[in-house]
Specification:
There is one protein chain. This protein has four helices and eight strands; from the N terminus they run H-E-E-E-E-E-H-H-E-E-E-H. It has helices at residues 2-14, 124-130, 133-145, 173-192, and strands at residues 22-30, 43-51, 58-66, 72-79, 108-115, 149-155, 163-166, 168-169. 27% of the residues lie in helices and 29% in strands. The chain is globular. Strand 6 and strand 7 (163-166) form a beta hairpin.
């Protein structure tokens, strides 16, 4: 039991700590998440990593998708809905689709890092609506943080979007370790009682 406790304590101490500048958002993409919902068999997963460090200021977008009903035509992030996790919004990122996103396919993977200070990262209409490039960056980051931004993939069969998901902050790995440490401590106390 002591060996297990020592191992667990070591893992907690060695867990990577968040730098405060990298925020990870994730979502499951599917048809029922679209507005209006649809019965597409398409499925996907997206991760958006925002690095707000002034020396970096990037957005890494990773998407895996499959089983779309027809070839895709566009993929991007929309922001900002009037209410969190509901409704629709205009396209915030590159139009008509992310730079280098696999096009005309029903399945694929994507991984690209964008500069948050490059106007080409955004839909020009989004920048105009926000008043400036820096305001567009702030609006997108704020929209992500409060559930008002979603990623979706459009297809020929569903031109307004076949699969989508609202991006939500992913828990930090250290959070799981701390919760586990608390549970482990509880079990140790219970066992010794």
């Amino acid at each position: 039991m002591k060996t297990l406790a020592l191992t667990f304590a070591t893992l907690v101490l060695l867990a990577p700590s968040a730098s405060g500048s990298l925020i990870v958002y994730t979502t499951i993409l599917n048809g029922p998440n679209e507005a209006p919902p649809n019965n597409s068999p398409g499925i996907g997963f997206a991760e958006v990593d925002i690095d707000t460090d002034p020396a970096v200021q990037t957005m890494r977008v990773r998407v895996t998708f499959s089983n779309l009903t027809t070839p895709n035509t566009a993929a991007h992030i929309h922001c900002c809905t009037l209410l969190p996790f509901t409704g629709t919004a205009g396209v915030a990122t590159t139009v008509p689709t992310f730079t280098g996103f696999p096009s005309g396919v029903t399945s694929g993977t994507y991984d690209h890092t964008f500069s948050l200070i490059d106007p080409a990262t955004y839909n020009p209409a989004f920048v105009t609506a926000q008043g400036s490039l820096s305001s567009a960056e702030t609006a997108l980051i704020n929209g992500l943080s409060i559930g008002e931004a979603y990623l979706n993939i459009h297809t020929t069969n569903f031109p307004n979007g076949e699969i989508r998901g609202f991006l939500v902050p992913a828990p930090e790995p250290a959070t799981f370790l701390l919760a586990g440490a608390a549970m482990f401590g509880f079990l140790l106390r219970r066992r010794s009682a």
